[in-house]
Design brief:
Length: 477
């Protein structure tokens, strides 16, 4: 059956083709202009469209029309090609490029609380309705932002379609009585920030692979902007936190690096518990083209100075690492900072490590900390050989140990508070078992699942702070 919309599309195509004939452009020149606007069909398909042999979605037709009109504007007096919208409606270019430009322009100098409106406006360039959900710091729920949002409630990460998209760091389509909707993960680089809920108008197909790709672009750029805005405003942060944080926990969270980061040669992910009451644990990492540097520190949670001591250890480690010093220099810097500022009575346990990304050589040094685990695909985790020295602050040099990784290995740094989390009957949490059970997931999801399992095991009553840092080495391509 021929519909009114198909007749309108054919009439638009006919006039666009006629206008193109007056531009003096070659097909290649037209395609280049169309592609610069965000068009995603090939030159052959574009030529077939103009000849009436290949249909295009409305957004793509309008980008062709705009490419033609840009040329006609250069030839004053020429009749313009029509857009698919009614006269008087917005005739600005639509599509992925317009959406990304809308997002960048709208986010400039905007208050953090207004970012959902900016994201929604960018979605309209793709004929989409978009809502923002942010993951809480427990990574237990996805919370609509702004909150409250009419018609939208928090969604469980473990049991919702939105949560499944978040867990997989991907995109999923769902169908319900309200119609189809797309859930795509908000990413700041490789760190999961939340999800976007995407709904489409009657003329837009959410099953279109090109549209899904464009939604991922939008979610990635939105994630970057949201993460950047968290550094200069509290509105986004307040949505993500479900409980109050004390001053020490606030300090330690501000010192943490992003919970996930990646290059082509390594993926790192980590976390701390209890999320709202951490008092003496932190971790850090740095990635380069050749090396991944890893560190985890534990000052305990029983003294008032724990948070300051572990922060001093972290700062000394970063300073030495950024000066290009190796494990020995980093060890000496942390020892000196603690003994100088806190005296001989203060100590911090920890592990320093570095991975040669070309060869897979793991070098590590334990100062009263837990020896690293290596999770080998299909064989479960094993503890690497190490020689523990006394904690940082005592000034006693330790021995640097070495291990050769195999492609696909996962290096696991952790604190005693994780492996020593206990149930009500005193049973210890099986870190090795939990790592093995979740080995098939991506590193940030492994970290989330292991910490959630430990929290469930001890009913969220950690006697010591739990810290976890993972590094996945895929091997040299």
């Amino acid at each position: 059956m021929v519909t009114l919309s198909s007749l309108q599309a054919e009439e638009q195509r006919r006039i666009v083709a006629a206008c193109f004939a007056r531009t003096g452009l070659t097909m290649e020149q037209l395609w280049l202009r169309y592609f610069a606007l965000g068009g995603d069909v090939s030159e052959v398909e574009l030529e077939a469209f103009l000849q009436g042999m290949f249909p295009l979605p409305r957004i793509q037709r309008d980008m062709v029309a705009h490419a033609v009109n840009e040329r006609l504007d250069e030839i004053s007096g020429a009749r313009r090609a029509p857009y698919s919208r009614d006269t008087g409606e917005d005739t600005r270019p639509r599509g992925p490029l317009a959406a990304l430009v809308e997002l960048l322009d709208g986010a400039r100098r905007v208050a953090p609380e207004r970012l959902p409106e900016v994201v929604a406006a960018a979605g309209r360039a793709l004929d989409l309705r978009i809502a923002v959900y942010l993951a809480d710091y427990d990574q237990h729920r996805l919370v609509p932002f702004p909150e409250p949002s009419p018609g939208r409630a928090p969604l469980a990460i473990e049991s919702s379609v939105a949560g499944q998209a978040y867990r997989q760091a991907g995109t999923l389509l769902t169908e319900d009585s309200a119609g189809p909707r797309l859930w795509t993960t908000l990413l700041d680089g490789d760190e999961r920030v939340g999800v976007l809920e995407v709904e489409a108008g009657a003329n837009t197909d959410l099953n279109d692979p090109a549209l899904r790709t464009q939604c991922r672009w939008l979610a990635s750029l939105s994630g970057h902007l949201i993460a950047a805005a968290m550094r200069y405003g509290d509105g986004l942060d307040l949505t993500r936190r479900r409980r109050r944080r004390g001053p020490v926990a606030e300090l330690l969270w501000q010192h943490l690096p992003p919970l996930t980061a990646a290059t082509r040669d390594v993926v790192v992910a980590g976390g701390v518990e209890p999320a709202y009451d951490v008092r003496g644990v932190t971790f850090d990492y740095a990635l380069s083209e050749t090396t991944a540097w890893l560190a985890i520190f534990d000052a305990g949670r029983d003294t008032e100075s724990s948070g300051l001591a572990v922060s001093a250890a972290l700062a000394a480690y970063r300073s030495a690492r950024r000066e290009g010093q190796g494990l020995r220099g980093q060890e000496s810097s942390v020892d000196k900072a603690l003994s100088t500022h806190f005296g001989l009575g203060t100590s911090v346990r920890g592990t320093l490590a570095e991975v040669d990304l070309a060869r897979g050589d793991l070098r590590h040094l334990e100062a009263g900390g837990e020896a690293p685990l290596v999770l080998v695909s299909g064989h479960g985790p094993t503890t690497v050989d190490s020689a523990r020295r006394s904690p940082f602050g005592a000034g006693t040099p330790g021995r640097v140990s070495a291990t050769r990784l195999q492609p696909g290995d996962l290096v696991v740094l952790h604190t005693e508070g994780l492996s020593d989390a206990r149930s009500a009957d005193g049973a210890r949490f099986s870190l090795a078992g939990s790592l093995d059970a979740n080995a098939g997931h991506v590193p940030p999801e492994i970290a989330r699942r292991v910490l959630q399992a430990a929290k469930s095991h001890c009913h969220n009553t950690f006697t010591h702070d739990a810290g976890l840092l993972l590094a996945h080495w895929p091997g040299t391509p």
